[in-house]
Amino acid sequence: MTISELVAQHYDAVYRLAFRLAGTAHDAEDITQQTFLDAQRKLETLRDLSSAKAWLCMIARNLFRRKLRDSGPSRTALESIPEPACAAPPEPLDTNSLELALQELPTEFRTVLVYFYFQNLSYQQIAEELNVPIGTVMSRLSRGKQHLRQRLNCDRFEL
Amino acid sequence: MTCETTLEQLDCVRPHSDDLALPEFADARAHLETCDACRFQFERRQRIDSAIAHVMHQVPVPSDQPAKLLAQLETAQVATTANATRPKRATHWRAVALSLSLALVVAVAMWPRSSDQLAVGEVLDRLSVDVTKLSRYDGKVTPPKPFEWSAINVFGDVRGQDLDGTPGHDAAVRLFQFDTRRGHIVQGLLISMPAQRVSPPPAASRFSVASPRYPSIGEQRFAAVTWQEGDWVYFCLIPDNPGDLELLQRSTQGVAA
């Protein structure tokens, strides 16, 4: 498979992951570009074409983590995010609401949620990938999901 | 196990998966079998998770980006064609010359063969030869690596160029490569000339502080700097991207030999 074919087949998936991790279109484009540049250099290491998407996503996740490391640790605590002043009327669950809710989260919580929801990684896989204790991942998942449920008013939904 | 801790633990169960069957969730499973409220909440949260996962994927992708990326990949591929294999192979020389489309001539007479002197601008103006046609450098002294270039890989055979029509090579030409932390590769040419052949000498005495210029050589633009260290004058040429030269200069600041 050529790099052009990889771009044609998987650009959207990689960009979407990068966007959810990084939170901005600019950073998503940067990560996506670098992902495919790295992939081009390492193309001969891709043996199983059926795993191309997973391979590219892994490169993207690694690049995001490196970017985080270079920018220094996040200082925002989940508790510092203010509660809404009053209960908002129930809104349909849409991408804008989700985006706002995700952007409120500290990076370490958002990353765990993106890995869970977007990449469908198990909590053990997330712990291994982020090199944090399993208990930390479980805590961040639980608290992060609680935050999303509150922000998205999911308790008011009939799902 | 309390309802609160059960539901917290079950937040780790992926929707539409077999996670709940894992051994670590045995206590939570047992609790669900006896607690209708928690079973209701768990099933509801699984549906919420499915909805969130679905919306999570709804990211609009800029339509022009893939085409831009392909152009960048092609440029990168052209610039690193010779790096598809190990850079020390002899074939790297031909591949780099083809991919970079360089045409170089460096007017240098090795001491004591000639006393002709050239200005820096004249040297750059005379660059017009295909690197692949250069033979192995036959000068008496191989130019040393520049002072700040310890982290830059100057590789391959030292090639030579006759520029004044007299027997023997007048200049040494080498390829270099620098791998940045982000995986970006900078490649270019390092040309070395005896200092007495260049007049007036370059103002800079170190690579990292040399001022860039942008000559056109053949049909290609380059970013170039010139500096003198001891008995040698060096020319560093990088095709196309002035940013790469700036990056390289920043990377070498403060580097000891």
Give a written overview of the molecule.
The complex is a heterodimer of chains A (159) and B (257). Chain A has 2 domains: 3-71, Rna Polymerase Sigma Factor, Chain: A (Orthogonal Bundle), CATH 1.10.1740; 80-156, Arc Repressor Mutant, subunit A (Orthogonal Bundle). The longest helix of chain A has 20 residues, at 3-22. By secondary structure, chain A is mainly α. Chain A is 65% helix and 0% strand. Residues 84-90 of chain A have low confidence and may be disordered. Chain A is globular and about 45 Å long. Chain B has 257 residues and is α+β, with helices and mostly antiparallel strands. Chain B folds into 2 domains: 3-56, no CATH class; 65-252, no CATH class. In chain B, strands 1-2-3-4-7-6-5 form a 7-stranded antiparallel β-sheet, with helices on both faces. Chain B starts with a helix and ends in a 5-residue tail after the last helix. The interface between A and B is large, with 43 and 34 residues.
Q: Gist?
A:
Chain A has 159 residues and is mainly alpha-helical. Chain A has helices at 3-22, 25-41, 52-71, 95-104, 107-117, 123-130, 134-151.
SSE inventory with pairings:
The complex is a heterodimer of chains A (159) and B (257).
Chain A lengths: L2 H20 L2 H17 L10 H20 L23 H10 L2 H11 L5 H8 L3 H18 L8
Chain B lengths: L2 H8 L15 H9 L1 H21 L8 H15 L11 H10 L19 H6 L9 E2 L16 E9 L9 E9 L5 E10 L21 E2 L2 E10 L2 E8 L2 H11 L5
Antiparallel strand pairs in B: 1-2, 2-3, 3-4, 4-7, 5-6, 6-7
Helix pairs in contact in B: 1-2, 2-3
